[in-house]
What does this fold into?
Amino acid sequence: MVKDDYAIEQFRKNGYKITPQRQEILQAFMDNNNNQPLSAEEVHRKVVERYPNISLDTVYRNLNVFLEIGIISKLSFREGKSRYELDLGKHHHHLVCLKCGLTEVIDYCPFKFLEVEKIEEEKKFEITKHSFEIFGYCQLCRERPVEKSFNKSVSC
It folds into this structure.
């Protein structure tokens, strides 16, 4: 598979061994059929099925290696938990539902519509990378009836 080849090449090019645990972590991302970014805990749950003794710390350490060599990207959404996704050279951004957490890829980059040189000059700031997520509500969450919550006050 092309993704597999790219990742293996990145490990070799950067002097890292391709351990069974790393292969399994990579496989967790490749088997992620819904393409939703995964938390370290979700990756761990997938890997522990084949490697029951792998620790969450080992998953985190390897995710950092994957980040360093450009196999995955780290995303930070509103929930405050880092999420990760395969990053095999296709630059993109996301729509994120504030209610259910659904994440959808935007295949183009809104950044290219900004006057980058003007921003850099005005702010005396060199832009080297960017992140762009749009938060709102997906169609399913907008169509769901509003759940009513009742304030139950307790009397003494």
